[in-house]
């Protein structure tokens, strides 16, 4: 996501892709539409595509993975491919389809909840939503001495638009008391802006718009989606996953509200559930990918089983 404007776009009618001869063919209109968000399509090797060409073939079950505020699609690339290997009838991508599973990390977790809120009710089929290390309401940063996203974004905005190396950014962040792990992760979002092989010194710039990122994070802080959790739409199951060493503070109030919502879930087709991922900080897919995979796999097995009965 390169700007905050993208979040306000209406659902795009152009983001249709087809799989032909094992290669992805994009519709030409998609290139022209400025509102299309970037995505990467990952498909299991048993996926039969596509109903746009053959209505007799049902749409493959789709999962959408949404990264966090300073992330990119490549953050979840390896994890998505692992899911597609384990569940070869699934695809994972941002398409004009009704997803069976939504997985959102941090900022992406609130986006996933917002997608449920904006969807037509009742939903055409059950949807399982995973909110990874984010709460529906107030954002509570970590304790003193821990990394604060607002401070990190503000610091990056004060840095030069172009830098000479990724290490320069890492060194600057560490000097400013940000953790080494966060500094190295942030530096992965730099791309070389000077042509490779040129005689001039190399330079790097950000792959995203930091002013847009700042606006989106403010929206993330201000958005309150507790009403969805406490009045879950029919057919929706919301799973919260708390990282054991989260950089966000999960207040006792938040945990109590989620557990109360678990108890008052309307029926078996919808509900709320709380999970804890041990031995992981906020970047759950990097800190404990095996543990996260075990927890998420249950959802894909359930949905695959339900699909087999349709």
Automatic annotation (TrEMBL):
* InterPro entries assigned to the protein according to its UniProt record, in alphabetical order: AB_hydrolase_1 (IPR000073), AB_hydrolase_fold (IPR029058), Serine_prot/Carboxylest_S33 (IPR051601)
Where the record annotates domain AB hydrolase-1, the positions are 90-293
Q: Does the keyword Hydrolase apply?
A: yes
Q: Which UniProt keywords apply?
A: Hydrolase
The answer to whether the entry has keyword Hydrolase is: yes
One GO MF annotation is: hydrolase activity
For this protein, the record's Pfam families field holds: Abhydrolase_6
Give the family from UniProt.
Belongs to the peptidase S33 family.
PANTHER family on file: 2-SUCCINYL-6-HYDROXY-2,4-CYCLOHEXADIENE-1-CARBOXYLATE SYNTHASE, ALPHA_BETA-HYDROLASES SUPERFAMILY PROTEIN
- What name does the UniProt record give this protein? AB hydrolase-1 domain-containing protein
The species this protein was found in: Triticum aestivum
């Amino acid at each position: 996501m390169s700007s905050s404007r993208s979040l306000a776009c209406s659902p795009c009618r152009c983001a249709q892709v087809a799989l032909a001869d094992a290669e992805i063919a994009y519709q030409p209109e998609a290139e022209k539409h400025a509102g299309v968000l970037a995505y990467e399509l990952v498909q299991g090797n048993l996926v039969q595509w596509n109903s746009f060409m053959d209505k007799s073939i049902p749409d493959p079950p789709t999962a959408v993975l949404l990264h966090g505020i300073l992330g990119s699609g490549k953050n979840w690339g390896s994890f998505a491919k692992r899911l597609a290997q384990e569940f070869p009838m699934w695809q994972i991508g941002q398409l004009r389809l009704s997803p069976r599973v939504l997985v959102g990390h941090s900022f992406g977790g609130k986006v996933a909840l917002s997608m449920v809120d904006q969807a037509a009710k009742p939903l055409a089929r059950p949807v399982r939503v995973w909110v990874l290390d984010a709460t529906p309401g107030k954002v509570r940063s970590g304790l003193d001495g821990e990394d604060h996203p607002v401070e990190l974004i503000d610091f990056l905005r004060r840095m030069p638009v172009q830098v000479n190396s990724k290490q320069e950014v890492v060194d600057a962040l560490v000097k400013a008391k940000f953790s080494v792990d966060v500094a190295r992760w942030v530096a992965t979002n730099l791309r070389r802006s000077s042509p490779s092989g040129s005689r001039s010194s190399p330079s790097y710039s950000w792959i995203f718009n930091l002013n847009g990122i700042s606006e989106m994070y403010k929206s993330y802080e201000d958005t309150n989606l507790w009403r969805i959790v406490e009045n879950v739409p029919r057919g929706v199951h919301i799973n919260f996953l708390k990282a054991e060493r989260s950089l966000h503070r999960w207040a006792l109030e938040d945990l109590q509200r989620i557990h109360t919502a678990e108890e008052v879930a309307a029926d078996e087709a919808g509900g709320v559930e709380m999970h804890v991922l041990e031995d992981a900080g906020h970047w759950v897919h990097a800190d404990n990918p095996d543990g996260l995979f075990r927890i998420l796999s249950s959802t894909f097995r359930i949905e695959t089983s339900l699909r087999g009965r349709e």
